[in-house]
């Protein structure tokens, strides 16, 4: 099906020019605010180009801005590209603040506007696909993200979901390890049985054993009745052991026995109880170094990590940052019946520049308070508690040297991640020597890579 694009412009010459250049789309026209709204209702276009100088006041942007507000209110997902007079930056920025997707300054150049429309359409489609995915796939659908990095993880998780292989989810705090564990469970033949999660770091060492394995009446003072542990309550289903790296070394031996023999003994009990459960573990710790330091058993490490899955941090998923932010914005807007509908340009830049040490959880927190705090319909960087650091944000530049530098630093970051943070491999992937790589990292002041964080 051909995509429909609505062109709102009272200049017949421009209407004609766009009709001839946008042959890949179904182009419909409107020449003032009311006909624009009528066309919007009728055709539901994903992309609209809107000249801000509309009659009855073509010399000013007021009518166009009103049209923009009405379009966004009626169909908030529409990508509106506003067309402004030359040098009318103020109104262009105002339009972005009101929720326009992008702006374009006259005179109109067919190729450029085509490119803009194409990009807007692609984004609209991606967002739509994601909404459909989230609705139709209750399992992995809860994982939002279009980046190659997260999609590769999703595919891996989907593949192992149907098996009983022990999976070890590795990733920083807040990257979604528990979400993945649940999704794997919901995609597995055990989906109608319980999913039981336990966080090994949040339970005092002396209680963890009885929490996991249960206890018999009289096993210790206060054990008034026989109580099932988390392992037994997960019978038939999936047990999610979060922060497994924090499991006391003494308990690791008992854990290993359960994983190998699939039987447990309650604390104070003498009977072996067979258990049929799938185990998924997660940690933000470096288990390999813990094994080297002997604070984590090597045999247990191999037993729980038959297939390890690395969940990338949010800062390495550029593409997902805005998608997730928009998703949470919509979610919290509904939850708190708030006004905030879109992000200002500076908010977008600030989010892209931020390092997100708390990953998706941090983003949820920032978005929640921003939606509550925002004064108008547009969330500003300030509302998010972020400041767009000049130079950190991606510059809209055509200066070749800057474009080249930006592309280089991006490629370095990507290669570094793909190479598992190994410098020799990074250099190899980039086709440069290690000294060259180090001098580039210095040049672009990539402190995190330098320090290996
Ligand atoms: N891809 C995703 N799409 C949507 N929401 C996500 C995604 N990943 C994580 N979340 C949300 O982010 C929050 C943190 O995720 P989760 O608790 O799974 O992270 P975690 O890695 O287990 O964190 P921790 O190590 O601190 O326990 C949750 O509220 C979760 O719903």
From TrEMBL:
Residues 4-121 form the Response regulatory domain. NCBIfam families: PEP_resp_reg. InterPro entries: AAA+_ATPase, AAA_lid_NorR, CheY-like_superfamily, Homeodomain-like_sf, HTH_Fis, P-loop_NTPase, PEP-CTERM_resp_reg, Sig_transdc_resp-reg_receiver. It comes from the Bacteria. The modification 4-aspartylphosphate is found at residue 51. SUPFAM superfamilies: CheY-like, Homeodomain-like, P-loop containing nucleoside triphosphate hydrolases. This is PEP-CTERM-box response regulator transcription factor. Keywords: ATP-binding, Nucleotide-binding, Phosphoprotein, Transcription, Transcription regulation. Signal peptide: none annotated. Residues 143-372 form the Sigma-54 factor interaction domain.
């Amino acid at each position: 099906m051909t995509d429909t694009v609505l062109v709102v412009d009272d200049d017949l010459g421009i209407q004609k020019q766009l009709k001839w250049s946008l042959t890949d789309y179904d182009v419909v026209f409107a020449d003032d605010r009311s006909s624009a709204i009528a066309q919007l209702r009728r055709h539901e276009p994903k992309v609209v180009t809107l000249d801000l100088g509309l009659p009855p006041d073509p010399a000013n942007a007021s009518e166009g801005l009103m049209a923009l507000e009405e379009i966004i209110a009626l169909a908030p997902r529409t990508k509106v590209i506003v067309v402004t007079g030359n040098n009318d930056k103020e109104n262009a920025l105002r339009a972005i603040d009101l929720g326009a997707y992008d702006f374009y300054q006259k005179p109109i150049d067919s190729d450029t506007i085509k490119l803009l429309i194409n990009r807007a359409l692609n984004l609209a489609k991606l967002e739509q696909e994601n909404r459909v995915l989230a609705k139709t796939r209750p399992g992995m659908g809860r994982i939002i993200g279009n980046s190659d990095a997260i999609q590769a993880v999703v595919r891996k998780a989907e593949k192992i979901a149907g098996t009983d292989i022990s999976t070890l989810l590795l990733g920083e705090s807040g990257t979604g390890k528990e979400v993945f564990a649940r999704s794997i469970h919901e995609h597995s033949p055990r989906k109608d049985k319980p999913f039981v999660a336990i966080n090994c770091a949040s339970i005092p060492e002396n209680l963890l054993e009885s929490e996991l394995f249960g206890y018999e009446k009289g096993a210790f003072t206060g054990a008034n009745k026989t109580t099932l542990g988390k392992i037994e309550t997960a019978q038939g289903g999936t047990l999610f052991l979060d922060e497994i790296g924090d499991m006391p070394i003494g308990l690791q031996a008992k854990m290993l026995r359960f994983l190998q023999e699939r039987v447990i003994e309650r604390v104070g009990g003498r009977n072996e109880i067979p258990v049929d459960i799938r185990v998924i573990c997660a940690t933000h710790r470096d288990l390999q170094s813990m094994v080297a330091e002997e604070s984590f058993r090597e045999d247990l490490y191999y037993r729980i990590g038959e297939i390890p899955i690395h969940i990338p941090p949010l800062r390495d998923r550029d593409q997902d940052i805005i998608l997730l932010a928009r998703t949470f914005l919509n979610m919290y807007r509904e939850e708190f019946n708030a006004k905030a509908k879109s992000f200002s340009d500076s908010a977008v830049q600030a989010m892209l520049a931020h390092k997100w040490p708390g990953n998706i959880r941090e983003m949820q927190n920032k978005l929640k308070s921003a939606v509550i705090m925002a004064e108008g319909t547009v969330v500003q960087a300030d509302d998010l508690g972020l400041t767009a650091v000049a130079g950190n944000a991606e510059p809209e530049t055509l200066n070749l040297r800057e474009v080249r530098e930006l592309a280089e630093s991006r490629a370095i970051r990507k290669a570094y991640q793909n190479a598992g943070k190994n410098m020799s491999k990074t250099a190899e992937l980039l086709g440069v020597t290690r000294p060259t790589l180090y001098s580039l990292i210095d040049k672009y002041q990539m402190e995190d890579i330098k320090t290996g964080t």
